[in-house]
Design a protein that fits this description.
The protein has two domains: 83 residues, RNA polymerase sigma factor, region 2, helix turn helix motif (Rna Polymerase Sigma Factor, Chain: A, Orthogonal Bundle); 78 residues, Winged helix-like DNA-binding domain superfamily/Winged helix DNA-binding domain (Arc Repressor Mutant, subunit A). It contains nine helices and two strands; from the N terminus they run ααααββααααα. A two-stranded antiparallel sheet has the order 1-2. Helix 1 packs across helix 2, helix 4 crosses helix 8 and helix 8 packs across helix 9.
Amino acid sequence: MQSDSMVISRARRGEQAAFAELLSRYRAPVFNLCLRMLKNRDDAEDIAQEVFIKVFGMLERYDERYAFRSWLFKIAANQCIDFIRKNRVKLLSLDEPMKYQGEEIEREFPDERETPDQELEREQLGEILMAIASELPPHYRSMIVLRHQEQLSYDEIAEILDLPLGTVKARIHRARAMMKEKLRRRRLALGPQ
């Protein structure tokens, strides 16, 4: 199997088979990254397709001193972050009281939750953590996805997102702290164990 740089050289010469080879190698990883960040299969497919269109159009600008995979993931992560920002939905807080005829009314919901043991049996811890990660702001979510789902090193993440290594470490630490707090709040909401 040819190295990425050899296939890229062929693609730069216009060989269609080289573009197909790059697509074959990286379609699944790029789609998986997009799916983990966007949490919607249709959006992930659309963004992954846009990523490859963009990458193939910019192939002449690719600097071979860096890993192609990192460059590709950087573009994919940025496309996802841009998509999230453009499509951000205004969410209502369930903790804030509603206003009705000038009065504040506390929201009440029936307690239909499973016990903590039932919930942990029903869902894997990884699914719970990814749900929490999806609530993070996009720049923190991308850090968690790249580090824990794609299993990239801090250095690779820094290269992909074009950030200093210290910033990456600080953001991952902050994202983990935010997730830990969200998990703690979820556990408190479930009541005594």
